Amino acid sequence: MARSPLNVAVIGYGLSAQVFQIPFIANVPMLNLYAIVQRQPMPHNDAGKEHPGVKIYRSTSDLLQDAEVDLVVVATASHTHFDVFLCEKPFTMTVKQADELIALAHERRCLLTVFHNRRWDSDFLTLSSLIQNDVLGRIVEFESHFDVHSPSVRAGWKATWRTETATGSGVLYDLGAHLIDQALVLFGKPRKVTAFLYHQRTGDAKYGDPDSMTVLLHYMDGKLATLKASVINPTDKQLRYWVRGEKGTFRKYHLDVQESQIVNERRMPGSPGFGIEPSSHHGTLTTAPVNGNIISQPLPTLAGPTYESLYKTLVEALHGNGDVPVSPESARDVIHVIELAIQSAAQEKTLSL
């Protein structure tokens, strides 16, 4: 039986650790933030000062000598994700690496999972409920977007993994991994993949790997899933979902609020209203009853479980109660689609899975 609370060590102290990992770890009673690995603290970004009482290590090798660590969370750049326990998405850079890591976890009898947190977005859970309850009928087209208007690279980003030219950088491994994972959760693996990877920024703002993408997933039943992430979108609200079925459609703008609440409002998990969307962010459900009039109405977003649920499920798995929240095999499927998307864009052709 694992100890309670479990001692958690976080490797990395960037956006993922500060926004998506540590606040949720801190709000789960069965977890104790025990250690952080930060190689180079900065005056404005110092884990030791911001988390007094937590052990600070300067290298992963030093951390792994600490026998008191129960759970390791890897929240570093994408190309370092290969030798982990709970790994930030994307799982690995290649299917080969994913297979090796899965085999190693089985060999050592270790639990392994991936932080595909967008499975717990409130709007995604709302959409999932509509599909599972057949409200929209047979789905014929699915659009999922992560669009922003950012014609210039944000200050400080040119030196980061998200924009540099390196394995695992660029929009496909970053936001694309979320979009692909959600589509696979809803519909399973597609039959074919067509991808377009490109720069929308120009001049000095054009930097590193592609900043925008369109990925098409073709399914056996004729359904088409269109996944888009782009950086030139001057509009007051960004489209998130547009899903069309035989019985109705669902259109939704705005992203899930959990990230913005932590970053912009300093509202932490567990506080009143956390993860609850304002009514202005609710989607629109349009239904077409047989022999009836088409009806459109706002659909309140479910006040579902937050990203905290991923950690709670993981704790239960560590105590022998159920499966990990995200199976490494499902995360490997995301990497498979990413690899095909890269090949499709390079060859300018549709590829079979």
Give structural notes.
The structure is a single chain. Helices cover 27% and strands 23% of the residues. The strands form 2 sheets. It has a 9-stranded mixed beta sheet with strand order 14-13-12-11-7-10-9-8-15. The chain is α/β, with parallel strands linked by helices and 353 residues long. It is globular. The protein has 2 domains: 6-117 and 310-321, Rossmann fold, CATH 3.40.50.720; 118-306 and 337-352, Dihydrodipicolinate Reductase, domain 2. It contains 9 helices and 15 strands. It has helices at 15-26, 47-50, 60-63, 95-108, 122-132, 175-187, 258-265, 308-318, 328-347, and strands at 6-11, 31-37, 55-57, 71-74, 86-88, 113-115, 139-147, 192-198, 212-218, 224-230, 239-245, 248-253, 283-287, 295-299, 351-352.
- The name of the CATH architecture of the largest domain is 2-Layer Sandwich
Can you write the helix and strand succession as a string? Answer: EHEHEHEEHEHEHEEEEEHEEHHE
- By DSSP, the count of extended strands is 15
Helix-and-strand structural type: alpha/beta
Average residue pLDDT: 90
Strand content: 15-25%
CATH first level of the largest domain: which class?
Answer: Alpha Beta
Give the strand line-up of the largest sheet.
14-13-12-11-7-10-9-8-15
Q: What is the percent of helical residues? A: 25-40%
Instruction: Supply the number of structural domains.
Output: 2
GO molecular function, one term: oxidoreductase activity
Pfam families: GFO_IDH_MocA, GFO_IDH_MocA_C3
Family: Belongs to the Gfo/Idh/MocA family.
Domain Gfo/Idh/MocA-like oxidoreductase N-terminal: 6-116
